[in-house]
Every structure is written in structure tokens, then in C-alpha cells.
Amino acid sequence: MLWKEIERLERDLNPWREFERMQKHLRQLQKEIDRIFSNGEFPVSGEYPPINIWTNGEGAIVTAELPGVSPEDVEITVVGKRLTIQGRRKADEVQEGVRYHFKERWDGEFTRNVELPFNINADAVEAKFTKGILVINLPRAEEDKPRKIAVESA
């Protein structure tokens, strides 16, 4: 009898129970927010396209995921330290009499601006597009490259 009473008190006075309840409500709220903002105009995950950037003394390499985007629908511009990737993902063609049952893949225009830590030689930028991955090679501007200074003895 005493043991059952202790178990009941433990269950009723559990300080973590309220946190678990709040966490459940937060998950439901997040699902609702995702539903509201996933109307097909923009991806829910945030910035688009997702990118990776590697830098060294010579420049930077940027990779961007652009599945479903044609290379001719992508425009890259460089001004000083700023890289801009713009483009458009065309909507899927839907036959007459057919409507979406579920739509997570968005379509439309996108712009991604990235500020690099150095100026870019815009005349030497190269870009390749393979299997939905855009790879941009951004050489550092000569005047922005670190220079070794020879030290002479007096």
C-alpha cells in the first residue's frame, strides 16, 4: 500500500513532467509554423540555395545545391567581396484536371548573397554545374592577396 502511494506521489510531483508537456506543445507549434510557411513559395529550411564555402590564401570555392534548376536559369554576379547567386526553379507542369495532393518542392525565384572575407577577381571567376550542384571558383583579387615582405639587414 505504501509503495503504491510513493509511486503516485512520484508521478504527480515529477518536475520533468511539465517540461515534457511543454516540449510536446512546442513540437506541435513548430509543425503548425512549418505548415503555414511552406506554401510553396520558399523552402522552410531558411536560406536558399544551401551553400558551403572553403577559403584559402588564393581564393574561395562555393558549392550550392540547386536540384531541379537548369544552368541557364542561374545568374552569378561578383562585386568586390559580395557573391550573388540568383535564379529560378520552374514549376512542374500539371496536366489539366490534375491537382496537387501534397506539395513540398517549391518553385519560383531565389537570391542568395554572400559576403566573403576578401575581394574577388571577377574576371577570373569560373562556375560549373553538375547533377544539381553549382561549383564556383572565386580567385582572390591580386591586390587583396597577402604579400611577403623581405626584411633586409641594415
Structure in words:
The chain is an alpha+beta fold and about 150 residues long. It has two domains: about 1-35; about 50-90 and about 105-145, Immunoglobulin-like (Sandwich). The chain has two helices and seven strands; from the N terminus they run ααβββββββ. The protein has helices at about 1-10, 15-35, and strands at about 50-55, 60-65, 75-80, 80-90, 110-115, 125-130, 135-140. Strands 1-2-7-6 form a four-stranded antiparallel β-sheet, with no helix packed on it. Strands 3-4-5 form a three-stranded antiparallel β-sheet, with no helix packed on it. It starts with a helix and ends in a 15-residue tail after the last strand. The model has no long low-confidence stretch (mean pLDDT about 85).
Per-chain topology:
Blueprint: H1 2-12, H2 15-37, E1 51-56, E2 59-65, E3 74-79, E4 82-89, E5 108-115, E6 126-130, E7 133-139
Antiparallel strand pairs: 1-2, 2-7, 3-4, 4-5, 6-7
Query: How many strand elements?
Result: 7
Radius of gyration: 26 Å
Count of helical regions: 2
CATH class of the largest domain: Mainly Beta
Please, how many domains? 2
- Given the C-alpha coordinates, what overall shape results? flat
The unreliable regions are none
Q: Strand arrangement, largest sheet? A: 1-2-7-6
Question: Could you tell me the mean pLDDT?
Answer: 84
Q: Major sheet: size, sense and barrel closure?
A: 4 strands, antiparallel
According to CATH, the fold-level topology of the largest domain is Immunoglobulin-like
Structural class: alpha+beta
The proportion of residues forming helix, as a percent range, comes to 10-25%
Distance between the termini: 95 Å
Report the sheet-strand fraction: 25-35%
Order of helices and strands: HHEEEEEEE
What is the second-level CATH architecture of the largest domain? Sandwich
